[in-house]
Amino acid sequence: MTTAKSKATNSKTTPSTPMHSSDSLPSLLRQHAEYQFANELEELAKADTRQRPPNWKLSPWAVATYLLGGTLENGFEVTPKYIGNRRLMEVAIATLATDRALLLYGVPGTAKSWVSEHLAAAISGDSTLLIQGTAGTGEEAIRYGWNYARLLAEGPSMAALVASPMMRALSAGKIARVEELTRIPSDVQDTLITVLSEKTLPIPELNSEVQATKGFNVIATANNRDRGVNELSSALKRRFNTVILPVPDSIEAEVAIVHRRVESLGRALELPAEVPALVEIQRIVTIFRELRNGVTLDGKTKLKSPTGTLSPAEAISVVNSGMALSAHFGDGSLKASDLMAGLVGAVVKDPIQDQVVWKEYLETVVKEREGWADLYRASREML
């Protein structure tokens, strides 16, 4: 295969720009991280005097500060995007500064996609080069496709080629994101091997290729609890450095995560409801942690665990659902009945097995716990 560097150079396409103006951003349901936290990224860039890897918008130190939060020398406060083990984030960032791809692995709801998006935003200034893995993802989603009207009219050419996010990331020297890698069929997964090992994407139809520009890398996410998972081949595993994101190791950390995200989502959704007090969030997190771990926090009572993961992501969903109920069908103040409506749905995924687990937890823990009588009454109304 000829290199055809001139063709490869001509084939470089920059990531598609968002199809909206900056004036329309406030109306978006969910802004990309690089827009939502543009002020923080700008301040970090100004204060960042450390060495930056080729094509990085920020130095690894600044990327870590963006992710984990901190106060800059000028007093500017950077909010934490990830609350957890700092060393894990440092390992992830250092990996992306090398030629190794990064695999964020763990149970669902441990902020893998969240971390992936913010890493791409801080490093490349663009988190939109995304391939969403599903059972139906084909090779063209990773390699390239064709504009068939032009293909039939003109034959194979760069003009008829439709660049994938991976190809655009390669040519622009940016971060490509692959979500739910293990949901992608195994033969399609292996399309990544050439990209990750040779740093090039062959185009055999044109006897050409697109070579990676410095700064290119890949962040993939995968979870180990999904049904229908396609295991990664050993050849592909070797090309990733794996960072396992755990569930929060303390109730305080989990409460902080849920509280921060509930506040953020409440503002984005413009919910006319009060942000719930920490005590309400702590009750939901306590329930999730006890059912997840199979024992009460004091270690005195063993419990059965439901089939679901009950991660912080589910806790955030329960609280936001409760806020919506209280805002539109209540007085705007979150009550036990508002929380319980979403809580039962989060716990009871299997209508037979999980129902038994939930009823047992209600009778042995919720009913007997001081200050939780309102939750018990609300739960009985739901069953």
Please give a structural write-up.
The protein is α/β, with parallel strands linked by helices and 383 residues long. It folds into two domains: 5-244, 3-Layer(aba) Sandwich (Rossmann fold); 251-382. It is 46% helix and 11% strand. The protein has 18 helices and eleven strands. The chain has helices at residues 5-10, 33-36, 38-47, 60-68, 86-96, 112-124, 139-142, 148-154, 165-172, 186-189, 192-198, 234-237, 251-269, 278-293, 312-329, 336-347, 353-366, 373-382, and strands at 70-71, 77-78, 101-106, 130-132, 144-146, 161-163, 175-179, 200-203, 208-211, 217-223, 240-244. Strands 4-7-10-3-11 form a five-stranded parallel sheet. Strands 1-2 form a two-stranded antiparallel sheet. Strands 5-6 form a two-stranded antiparallel ribbon. Strand 8 and strand 9 (208-211) form a beta hairpin. Helix 4 (60-68) crosses helix 6, helix 14 (278-293) crosses helix 15 and helix 15 runs antiparallel to helix 16 (336-347). The chain is globular. Residues 1-22 have low confidence and may be disordered.
